[in-house]
Amino acid sequence: MLLAQVAVERGFWSEAPNSPALWTKLSICLIIGLAVMVGLMFVPVRARRPIIGMCTFIAGLYWVLLYVWPKPIDRQPDEAPLNAVEGVAIWLEESNKFVVSFTQILTALLLGLGIFSLLTIHLGKIRRRHPDALFSGVLLASMLLMITFGYWDYNQRQGEAGALLDNPANWTFVQYSRDFLFQGFLQEMDAAMFSIIAFYILSAAYRAFRLRSVEATILLAAALLVLVSLMGAVSSAWDTQVRAIANGNPFVLNFQLSEISMWIRNTFQTSSIRGIQFGVGIGALAMGLRIWLGLERTGGQD
Amino acid sequence: MPGLGAKLQAMPKQIIYLVLITVTTIPLFFDVAVPNEPLEATQDYYATLEQLPEGSRVLMASDWTGSTRGESKGAFRSTLNILIRRKAKIAFYSTADPQAPRVAQDAINELNAERRRANLPEFKRWEDWISLGYFPDSEAANNGIANDLQGAFSGRKDFPPGAPPRDVFQSPVLEGITKVGQIPLLLIVTASKTSNFTVERIKPDRKTGYPKLLFAVTGVMVPETQVFYQSKQIAGYCGGLKGVYDLEQLMENGINFPSKKEAVVKSDKYDVVPGYPSPSNKGQGTRYYPTLHFALALMILLVIVGNIGMALSKREARS
Questions:
Q1: Which of A72, A233, A255, B15 is least crowded, fewest Cβ atoms below 10 Å from its Cβ?
Q2: Complex ipTM value
Q3: What confidence score (pLDDT) does residue A272 get?
Q4: Chain A, 94-153: which have a CB under 8 Å from a chain B CB?
Q5: What pTM, to 2 d.p., does this model score?
Q6: Each residue's pLDDT tens digit, B134-148
Q7: Residue A227: its chain B contacts at CB < 8 A?
Q8: Do A266 and B226 touch (CB under 8 A)?
């Protein structure tokens, strides 16, 4: 049983799908966006840094305020702010969905930038008759095919029969083609590429893992113990023997492979990773502050 | 003429590759039952899923694609089977890869095809699950979910049966949900850092303690996930292929089930967490674990051979 249609709140940020108002706003935004981009290209080099710095500061300021600004506790949706501090907190909270949507759109534009970059490089190779032009052609043809069948399938799913297309019994040529390209080709090649790593890991372990020093010996011993503990047949057999010998003695039970491996993980591994993550976190914070406050001098010179 | 030590250290890589292909392929043709003791983290993962109230709403981030399907697909399928048994209503979303939502939907369709063949009720789109799609910025998406769930998912649509796409908040899955603290479980099947972003951004509600966090991660992510598990920021995790095998064994045997005395998997942490013996529990974990087993054995063997070679070379040089 379907639920009753819930009225969607319309406002400056939300227009009905395919409505003239939506298309007008989209067109205006596109024109303004293009004008800003073109305008930025003609801005003197020295003026670019302050513009970028200001945009970065405003963008970062929102998240900093959202994190540090005191929030009213247990506020109900229809409750009015008690003072200016609460007013700012509520404004920050209510702006969140727009800021998040804007961030998502901005990040999604990077996909478009990726496609643009891919097209520029590979069309250039084909035009220059580069020795690898054939591969570029295959790549672009594959991309075109995937986009065509992906959107064709997507469009067919927008109608009333959308959910029915989840069942292969209702598929047409379009869904079979999309599935053949996506699951049959792309996902299989993705899996194959990743599987190749096994060969490199094995070859590298054989050639590089040598007991050349005390440190290497400790590292190798720890790695072997953890590896063996992942081999159920070996670790189960060993642990069963240890339990039989221990006869409830807690000290002897420590020699179970599962116990040793967990001790290595919980004592050495997690503490090392925590240390590394603390270091990375502090570094990221310092770098974030430098970028946010416009102190970072590298990049953006021309 | 190189000595034995040098020979042992310089085995041709073609032979190593051939042996690897052989030892990893042969087990796939046989039904090998490898003895196993499920890890505590996987037991907690299974117990948290089993203790989920029936009909609960679940947020599930599906952040895996074909590259890690050897591990991730098994975890995804087994977890879904448990959640379907708990009659959970699941909202899927992806923040790692644009391919991920399609991969998840194809895996659900595959599961439904199997359920149709077994005369089991389907896992119905819109009624039981919805797809919220892809969010390109994982950090922003998690911030949105934590601060304003309705805002984060606003404008997303899915397909009710026989009707055009509608707003996801009209579906039984998200109906009445306004904040993440109303959702008992947030589960991530991931092969990337999206689990880190989630644990950094999403905190349990002070009153309800929801959402509990569960991660199903790839083998290489186990060390970093163990950090969150050890500090109790996540309720449990299913790590790598071993985790998937553990999970399938737990689905079959339960914990302290049927009683602590007769149980295959025993734990002092839980009373009885039921298992549901069925041939369908044997999934990807059971099929692939022997392969992992032999690959690890081969790696250990080669490391030992290389080191013996080095020791022999040193002795030959001295003499």
A1: B15
A2: 0.86
A3: 94
A4: 94, 96-101, 103-104, 106-108, 110-111
A5: 0.89
A6: 999 999 999 889 988
A7: 296, 299-300
A8: yes
